[in-house]
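I hope you will forgive my troubling you with a question about protein structure. You will find the record immediately after this paragraph.
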Amino acid sequence: MAMTVHVDIVSAEGAIHSGQAAMVYATAEMGEVGIAPRHTAFISRLRPGDVRVENEQGEQEHFYVSGGMLEVQPHKVTVLADTAIRARDLDEAAALEAKRRAEDTLSGQKAEFEYAKAQAELAEAVAQLRAIEKLRRLKGR
């Protein structure tokens, strides 16, 4: 039996995933990290993007997180995200529309608060579109 690590992915709406994994990949603040069972403990911020949970058979389940925190312990990985969505449930049309709205707001350069909010919305929409594209490429293999 191969070694596994317990993985919990939790958002503000509730738990989205809980189970065993042979490997976990996430977009941390310092870049993409790969976490195997018995990994050294650490905590990092997550960037908006893809979290992949790989089972013992090598199959991967993809999730989109809008950012948050990653806590790694030797036998447990916890992802705490503001928003977490199974990648297959991402809505490409909605992400494209959010990107367009954010770009329109940024081009208008209204109040500083609106500008900062539009930058955050644009970053999240682009991250969702990247996750959708990554999943599309993997399905094409």
